[in-house]
Amino acid sequence: MNKIFEEPMYPYSRHADQDAARPVRHKVVVIGAGPVGLAAAVDLAQQGVAVVVLDDNDRVSTGSRAICFAKRPLEILDRLGCGQPMVDKGVQWNVGKVFFDERQVYEFNLLPEDGHKRPAFINLQQYYLEAQLVERIRELQQQGAQIEIRGRNKVTAIDAQPDHVALEIDTPDGPYGLEADWLIACDGASSPTRRLLGLDFVGRVFEDNFLIADVVMEADFPTERWFWFDPPFNRGQSALLHKQPDGVWRIDLQLGWDIDKEREKRPENVIPRLKAMLGEEVEFQLEWVSIYTFQCRRMEKFRHGRVIFAGDSAHQVSPFGARGANSGLQDSDNLCWKLALVLDGKAPESLLDSYDAERIQGADENILNSSRSTDFITPKSEMSRILRDAVLDLSEHHPFARPLVNSGRLSVPCIHDGSPLNSADALDGPARSRPGAPCPDAPLDDGFLLDHLGGEFILLTINADAPDLIQEAGISVRRLALSTQANTHSALKERYLGDNASAVYLIRPDQHVAARRPSYDDNLIRQAIRRATGKE
After folding, report:
1. How far is residue 302's CA from residue 201's CA, in Å, rounded to a whole number?
2. Is the CA virtual torsion 56, 58, 64, 69 positive or negative?
3. What's the pLDDT at 3?
4. Contact, 341 vs 455, CB < 8 A?
5. N or C: which end of the chain has fewer CB within 10 A?
6. Domain limits of the chain?
């Protein structure tokens, strides 16, 4: 781990709440200062919501943990003020290669088209993201936002009431009580919040284990994702290689089910495995080692009254496919604008039920794809292995077989078809920008489209007339007027108009499409605004 992060970033200090005669009530309390909890806190603070983050640690995570951040989460981080530093520090990549034995059987490009601000993926150690979010919180504090992180504040008891949540918190100075109008649990896969409330996961635990090793070395491998099936250095198993900043490389090695985890993590057992892969002559240092078991599970519900779960505390998937932190950031992105409207009295509490509906859909998609990846990577019978190996052989020369190869379907954003917030699609336009979809980016003459969207409701008009501002049911909707004649790039027309001459889109604060029409209709757009805020 980078030495700079070994010191506390949000050290414990006694707070006035600890000396109050009775527990102090806060609007929102977030448990967990990982990527999802910190992102939720920043998002809420940017919308004027006071928020307190509680964490039982006082520094960012050790080890790389999540390293692959996809295009959609990078776009979310842009809105939170952290996207550019992430991209500047991260290793950008679009290309992946798949090997069978020692042969490359094919490669793929995750972003084959131009006209996007962000790459398909960057690789960056999780502690850099957490540190960047902590710095963003400090910036917001300097700007007067009511946001704080309390390190070494461990939640030990939770009492969920109909109108608030009561917390008991342990600190170096002893316990104290706190209350929250709303509690967001972002405290990881082993979530103490989930345990304290007597809740659990449903789903599958796969009978396989993988060794994660982050090594520091000088190597001339390209900045691509390399995945091996049955490589000579790990026969009968699989392996994965990723490049990270600072000369760190992520290596995943499949170990099998019946192992001694503590024994396998010892350097004297890890180093020979890595030398077999990299070569005896390659010099490297171990930075971090862990072992994980494939799990594809989720809670039955993510919202339990005034307690809402997000990220790994709500759902777990296997790491192949980079769905953990990426889906967690999409959870917070989906939740925070809805919670802000509820707290501001501009939307009913029932709007939060759409968080459950939409993000459970996202979790189920991730679990389905992750389960399929796991079944392909770790066949459970000899016949399954024979079939898999045949697919890999065919994919070297026959394109029809390549979509069947599953080395971890990589994270893509969920399209919320059927969301209760969607209005009926009234435009025979591109499928990628239909209601429920996240807005595809497009180049404009003054930057990129997504830089003009997010954080509020927007009426995007393309070659169409409409009011510059709409006030409906307490919601202000600002117009963004674009013209394909005035914009020299063709991507806007291809991604939002298709064969249509004009279009009007209602865009949610999380940059998802709520409605689209060929032209402005005042009654129908107002109806769409009410529907998108849970009022219809």
Report:
1. 11
2. positive
3. 58
4. no
5. C
6. 3-89+121-200+296-365, 431-532
Give the model confidence (pLDDT) of 99-113 as tens digits. 999 999 988 887 778
Q: How far apart are CA 320 and CA 117, in angstroms?
A: 25
pLDDT at site 379? 84
| CA dist., res. 333 & res. 44, Å (int) | 10
Torsion of CA 133, 135, 139, 141, to 10 degrees: 80
Per-residue pLDDT at 222: 83
DSSP element (H, E) containing 290: strand 285-299
- Phi then psi for residue 315, to 5 deg, are -160, 150
pLDDT bracket for residue 319 (50, 70, 90): low
Structure tokens at 3: 């030495």
**How high is the mean pLDDT of the chain?**
92
Give kind and range of the element (H or E) at residue 482: strand 475-482
Q: How many angstroms separate the CA atoms of 530 and 474, rounded?
A: 10
Answer whether 312's CB lies under 8 Å from 188's CB: yes
The CA distances from residue 242 to 108, 280, 381, in Å, are 15, 20, 29
CATH of domain 3-89+121-200+296-365: 3.50.50.60
End-to-end CA distance of the chain: 50
User: What letter would DSSP give residue 480?
Assistant: E
CATH number of 431-532: 3.40.30.120
> What is the b/e burial string over 428-462, where b = at least 16 CB atoms within 10 angstroms of the residue's CB?
ebbeebebbbbbbbbbbeeebbbeebbbebbbbbb
Q: Contact, 439 vs 507, CB < 8 A?
A: yes
User: Phi first, then psi: what are they for 110, rounded to 5°?
Assistant: -85, -10
Closest by CA to 376, choosing from 100, 122, 94, is 100
* Better-scored residue on pLDDT, 62 or 394: 394
Radius of gyration of the chain (CA): 24
Range with lowest mean pLDDT among 362-366, 428-432, 476-480? 362-366
Distance between CA atoms of residues 27 and 165, nearest Å = 10
Reference 508, options 447, 426, 450; nearest CA is 450
Query: How many Å apart are CA 428 and CA 437, to the nearest integer?
Result: 15
Contact 178, 17 (CB under 8 A): yes
Among 59, 78, 70, 45, which Cα is nearest to 146's? 45
Q: Which residue has the tokens 């939002």?
A: 496
pLDDT band at 446 (very low <50, low <70, confident <90, very high): confident
Rounded Cα–Cα distance for residues 357 and 10 (Å) = 34
Question: How large is the average pLDDT for residues 423-434?
Answer: 97
Indicate the SS3 state at residue 185: strand
